[in-house]
Each structure stands twice: as structure tokens, then as C-alpha cells.
Amino acid sequence: MSAPRENQGTTTYDVIVLGAGPVGQNVADRAHAAGLSVAVVERELVGGECSYWACVPSKALLRPVIAVADVRRVDGARQAVTGSLDTDGVFARRNHYVADWDDSRQALGIKSLGADLFRGHGRFEGPGRVTVTRDDGAQQTLTARHAVAVATGSLPVLPDIPGIEEARPWTNRHGTDSSTVPARLAVIGGGGVGVEMATLWQGLGSRVTLLARRSLLPRLEPFAGELVAQGLGDAGVDVRIGVRVTALRRPDPEGPVFLTLDDGGELEADEVLFATGRTPATGDIGLDRIGLTPGSWLDVDTTCLVDGVDGEWLYALGDVNHRALLTHQGKYQARTAGDAIGARAAGRPVDDAPWGDHATTADQHAVPQVFFTDPEAAAVGLTAGQAVDAGHRIRTVDLDLNAAQGANLYADGYQGHARLVVDLDREILLGATFVGPGVSELLHSATVAVAGEVPLKRLRHAIACFPTVSEIWLFLLAAYQRDKETPHAASA
């Protein structure tokens, strides 16, 4: 390993990582495993957005809500639910999983990876040079021999509408770190954050109104958003599709928020939460010093090298490259890029061919995602529309999940739906979508099938245990075979 070296006020490392969230930690781990010295720079909490304001706290809060909903779907068990959730207990559970927003354990984890942690705001001073400014104003300059990896994540976007500053809206951070249940909550946005926040706060006792300009979960198959909207409505959420907020006002700082809607109506709420998109956290890291535009998404090649930067030294991982704003996908990129950094540093060949050791091929073909609503929505790969747009000849296979006996045993009156998207020319799966209680546990098998390009002829030999919900695979594949044997035109 090349050790850190002091030289004229600059400390030199093989690799510098900007951002100590899960993505930054993974690239640091892989680079260190390749024998390289690593510095990790973090200006907030070590562990990043995911650990303290996104994935971890939201799922810690959602789990009690979904658990009670699951119990109520089972006769003989539903009778045991005699009260409402203990919100203090739910918030305490969340606080446990975010370690009360104390990052000391994760900071020790950076050290256990073999990396050095620098707390402060990292900014580029030039190619391979980063200055870290601590809260007390002290500065230190770091230089990278081989690579700098940007893993600074993203920030919530608030729309430019009149009164938004006066309204003091929540973002995902307030939505996951609040310990007070608003009597009335307006959630703006029908994407993943919006539907999860609506599920969560309705379950905790708030009266939630969800406003979306178009369908819910618009990047999934249309039936996913429809079933999630139905589930939210059944839980008491007022779901309004095709509605836009044109103005906000909060005349009393301690009073309610008034939302003016483009349909002429007005909505009153105690708090308003905006889940209207993300922007890259690259606005103040000195991109202009290395020939890039501050605040921009960073386009990358398959090894996550940033396009338009000479010298094969700058990498962008996770949210900042805009490929898939999902923690697990960013970690995948970080592992792959960390290995590529090690190979380039050692002068070894880089295997960047599709599905190669240093290629993030899954970013284009097999991105899994789960939304922990009630019902859950889980998908991987292409939707039918995306597959057609990409030029594939496809057939879709659709079944209600209660075709599997395991689904009926999981929940009385189980309601859910599954779709496979089949490439007719190669007879492999291009995508799969599941909506229903507990379907997140079905997703990895679909991800293996899509990423592995498993032929359907072979996939039918992967036997699902009886009686599990996974047995739906048997019925989906049988339905495809029957459809194949019936002469008619392909789907596209």
C-alpha cells in the first residue's frame, strides 16, 4: 500500500473520497482492499443521507405501520389489534436505528476500513487536489495520486412557487426525523418518497392528503401506481391525481399552511411535505476548478469515470451520476469503481465489457427498486413500455398474485398483481413488477433472472417451495408457455 505522505502542507493519498455515506464507504473499502491509501471527507454525519434521513429511518418508521396492516389481513390475528400505534415507541425505534443521529460508530467504521476520515467541507482546488475546511475554519489540502471519487449524494428540490419560504415546508429530512405527528399533512409528489411518506404518516395518525401532478410511481408499470393509490385510499389517505400547488401561505408562523391548487380549490394543513425531486449535491465542491459546471449531474462511463475529464482520475458514484438514485445501486457502482481504481493504479487491464468485472452494466439492465407502501411495489429491469421503446419484441405475462396458494395463506383476501416482460427473440426476462403485501421478498429472484439473462426454459426448473408467495413464478411461466403455444401476434 502507498502510505499517506506529507509534502509542503499537503497530504497525499492514493484515493480521496468525497462523501462518507454508504457509497463513499464502499468505494473506500474496495480501494483499500486493492492496496491503496484512502482519505474520506465528510461535512455532515458519517453514514450520509441514507443512514439518518432516508432509507434507514423511513423503513424503521414504516415497518410498524405495515406490520399492523399485515396482522389485520389475517383472521384470528386481526382481533388482537385493539388500539392504535404507540407513536412514542415508533419514534424510539427510529432513533435506535439512526443511533440518535450520533455517527461515532460509523466514524470508527471508516477507520476499520483502513481509511483516514477528514471532517469538513471538501472542495476541488485543481485536478486531484482537495481542500478540506473544518467548522473552525482550519484547512488542510489533500492530493490524490490515482483517483478522486465524488459520492456527495443529492438534495431535495423545492419548487419555485409563491409563499414557499413562508410555509416552511418539510422535505424528506423532516419527514423522517420529526417526532411530532401533525394532525393534517399535505404531501406533494407521487414518486417513491411521496407515497412512502403518505403511508407512514397516515399510519401514525395524521390525516394525509397526497397531491400528484400525474399518476403515482410513474416510472413503474401503470398498475403499480393504481394499486398503491387504491391502498392509500383504503387506509384513509385523500389521493388527488392531476393537481398542482400554485401558491402557499402561512400567515401565522405557528398556524396552518394554506395551499392554493390549480383546480381553484384551497387545502389547509398543519404541515406540508414536498417530495418533488432531487438535485446533485455538487454545487459547492469546486467543480469549476476542474472544468465542470457546479451543481451539475456528472455523466460517467461504465466504470464511473466522469466524462470530459482528462487523465482517468475523477469518478462519480451514486446519486451524483443520476443513473439510479438508490443506495443499493450506488453501492454496486462503488464496489465496481473501487475495483477499477485498483486495476488502473496497478497497471492491470480494466474489464469494462458488458457484465465485466469493472462495468456497471446493471445500471442499464437490472436496477431493482422497492417502495414500502401498503401494498408494497417492487420492480426490476424494464417496463413493457420501456422495452418497446428500446426496440425489443416482447410479450407481457400478467397474473393476480392470489393464483399462488401461498399468497392466500399470507393474507386472507390477498390482493396483488405480477407482470413479467419477456424478450421474444431471446426468451429471457427483461423486467418484472410485483405489487402486493410482502412482495419485496420476491424481488431478488427476479433480479437474478434479469441480470443473469436466465433462459425461461431453464428458469422453469427453479422450483418455488409450496406454499409460498414465490410459487407465483410457476404460474407466470406456465402462463407464458400457454400463451406461446397459442398463435397470435406478439405484444410489440
From TrEMBL:
FAD binds at K59, G122, T152, G153, S154, D319. GO terms for biological process: 2-oxoglutarate metabolic process. The keyword DNA repair does not apply. Residues 13-328 form the FAD/NAD(P)-binding domain. Binds 1 FAD per subunit. Residues 367-472 form the Pyridine nucleotide-disulphide oxidoreductase dimerisation domain. Keywords: FAD, Flavoprotein, NAD, Nucleotide-binding. InterPro entries: Class-I_Pyr_Nuc-Dis_Oxidored, FAD/NAD-bd_sf, FAD/NAD-binding_dom, FAD/NAD-linked_Rdtase_dimer_sf, Pyr_nuc-diS_OxRdtase, Pyr_nucl-diS_OxRdtase_dimer. NAD(+) binds at G189, G190, G191, G192, V193, G194, V195, E196, G277. GO terms for molecular function: dihydrolipoyl dehydrogenase (NADH) activity; flavin adenine dinucleotide binding. Disulfide bonds join C50-C55. The keyword Transferase does not apply. Its cofactor is FAD. SUPFAM superfamilies: FAD/NAD(P)-binding domain, FAD/NAD-linked reductases, dimerisation (C-terminal) domain. Belongs to the class-I pyridine nucleotide-disulfide oxidoreductase family. This is Pyridine nucleotide-disulfide oxidoreductase. It comes from Streptomyces fagopyri.
